[in-house]
């Protein structure tokens, strides 16, 4: 009897090892046969990517070349636009290749690289928006101390805070995922998603799950606390301050608040897609919701800030006249 139990154990272990060695590629099952409209989908995604790159690159160049825009607020905006380029470049070229391909597979290493790009983009985006709200808080609530507080060295430190902790946190997450033995190879998405890969594991994922929960809590709660506190103070100053203070707050905070709202919508759709069973939702709607976060934010931010920030708008016009 004990011999049969041991034999069964080794058979199960051998089966796990065989399955894990076969998972050298993932199949992205959310893609479907587009038939005659394949070229149309390709052109739509292609022009979206060109617009995102062009709009964000233009604003980065405008801020970098114009000395009058070398202020903290515009430096944080420049960081935001760089992140939009980083996130969209981690997804759109891959989407374009997959649209033209008949076989929707991706190698495990490339999938993990894409997970790193996608999750770093989201973490950096939210941290950047939190730092921008802190900058607006100082400018509106403490205008006389603003230049003293926001020195060039502090701006450099804050930009490092925007990028380094998220990059390190996501890198650890990807390394933990890479160490898992995988027994499945089908991801029900149009791009690689960390949680979907973890669900394919046939080894213990306790460490991964605990780390993901802690990382998600820190990534969400700290920036959210900063945003909530700063906007409570800004609202307090607006209600008790002068008309000029209210106008300044509205002009500088409107695009930031719109960007935050758009980010929360995108993040909500992403969590909805990755954590819940969406099989009852129409395929096209699922794809739209999964791509909203990585498409609308890079499109929305340069348009909102380019049109609403008078300094950027005027400098951009003068650049085109040259």
From TrEMBL:
Which Gene Ontology MF annotations are present? G protein-coupled receptor activity; odorant binding; olfactory receptor activity
SUPFAM superfamilies named among the record's database cross-references: Family A G protein-coupled receptor-like (SSF81321)
Sequence intervals crossing the membrane? 40-65, 77-100, 112-134, 155-180, 214-232, 253-272, 284-307
Name the predominant localization. membrane
GO CC field? plasma membrane
Q: Give membrane topology per the record.
A: Multi-pass membrane protein
Q: Which UniProt keywords apply?
A: Cell membrane, Disulfide bond, G-protein coupled receptor, Glycoprotein, Membrane, Olfaction, Receptor, Sensory transduction, Transducer, Transmembrane, Transmembrane helix
Q: Which InterPro entries match?
A: GPCR1_Superfamily_Member, GPCR_Rhodpsn, GPCR_Rhodpsn_7TM, Olfact_rcpt
Which intervals hold domain G-protein coupled receptors family 1 profile? 55-305
Indicate where this protein resides in the cell: Cell membrane
Give a single Pfam family match: 7tm_4
Family assignment from sequence similarity:
Belongs to the G-protein coupled receptor 1 family.
Its name, as the record gives it, is Olfactory receptor
Q: What is the originating organism of this protein? A: Betta splendens
